């Protein structure tokens, strides 16, 4: 309480930067503890922390002080920007991951700032208690989230190929080098397939789908020639290389996005054509699922499109 009362003695500029600095320190320590201490990328990090950034900076700045709504929003997002810059400068995260998290972070900071602004006009003695409760909830949420097992989900992409199933099959089990991608998403560090090789034939054969970051090792579990190829994923590389000035090896690059199995299904169509469907079953330990699954499904569809288009091109060559 004494610390907050000292805010009253500061001039306007010092008061702003004091509020920002304290919030950055609190949010930074909570984030580091959640990521490296608990090993959790979840609601605590992506929802509660940006909310705290907006709420805490506004509450501190507005404590026994008259501020406007625009000032509350300004200080919240300046604080968020400084926290984000710190993630980049201290090589904790790369630009692409930050860009992916930005929409939800900006919205939650805005909400936190508005609620902080509303409460700052009413609260005085209870302000420290509310801040402490919110701060305590964040690591508690991380501990709870860490015990929740992720659910397996699937993504299916399809394409029609002007070739018979057996011709397509030859290009499904393995395929030659793909051209450099033109899609922007693959120029940001997201891993993409470059070729596929197979060792053996039938169930038990080992397929290697090679990406820019390494190889997916895929033991075949179903070999129905010309109809269905199904495989598990025994090993997988990092899903991306962080776009950064530093060589970042963030924890979420390992065992947070996990591909479990996949398949190619071939269906014979009229006029000698084939419907080829590629499916990936995966889970990720990054929450909230409703937000991050949009990103992961989008990326997997893009990977599927790249592979299926390549198979189509090779199968239709005369």
From TrEMBL:
InterPro entries: START-like_dom_sf. Keywords: Membrane, Transmembrane, Transmembrane helix. Coiled coil: none annotated. It comes from the Bacteria. The chain crosses the membrane at residues 17-37, 43-63, 72-92, 98-119, 126-144. This is SRPBCC family protein. It comes from Flavobacterium sp. WC2409.
């Amino acid at each position: 309480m004494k610390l907050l009362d000292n805010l009253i003695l500061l001039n306007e500029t010092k008061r702003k930067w004091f509020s920002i600095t304290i919030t950055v320190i609190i949010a930074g320590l909570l984030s580091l503890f959640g990521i490296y201490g608990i090993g959790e990328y979840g609601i605590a990090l992506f929802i509660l922390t940006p909310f705290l950034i907006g709420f805490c900076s506004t509450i501190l700045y507005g404590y026994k002080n008259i501020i406007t709504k625009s000032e509350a929003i300004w200080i919240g997002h300046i604080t968020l920007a400084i926290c984000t810059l710190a993630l980049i400068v201290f090589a904790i995260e790369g630009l692409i991951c930050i860009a992916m998290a930005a929409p939800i972070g900006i919205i939650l900071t805005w909400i936190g700032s508005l609620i902080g602004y509303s409460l700052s006009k009413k609260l005085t003695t209870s302000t420290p208690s509310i801040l402490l409760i919110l701060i305590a909830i964040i690591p508690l949420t991380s501990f709870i989230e860490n015990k929740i097992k992720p659910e397996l989900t699937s993504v299916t992409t399809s394409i029609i190929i002007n070739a018979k199933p057996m011709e397509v099959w030859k290009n499904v089990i393995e395929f030659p080098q793909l051209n450099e991608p033109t899609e922007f998403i693959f120029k940001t560090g997201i891993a993409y397939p470059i070729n596929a090789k197979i060792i053996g034939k039938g169930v038990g054969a080992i397929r290697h789908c090679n990406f820019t970051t390494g190889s997916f090792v895929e033991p075949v579990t179903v070999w129905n020639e010309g109809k269905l190829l199904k495989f598990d994923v025994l090993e997988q590389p990092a899903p991306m290389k962080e776009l950064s000035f530093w060589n970042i090896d963030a924890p979420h690059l390992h065992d947070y996005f996990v591909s479990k199995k996949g398949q190619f299904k071939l269906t014979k169509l009229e006029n000698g054509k084939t419907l080829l469907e590629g499916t990936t079953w995966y889970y990720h330990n990054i929450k909230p699922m409703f937000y991050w699954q949009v990103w992961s499904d989008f990326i997997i569809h893009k990977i599927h499109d790249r592979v299926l288009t390549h198979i189509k091109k090779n199968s239709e060559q005369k």
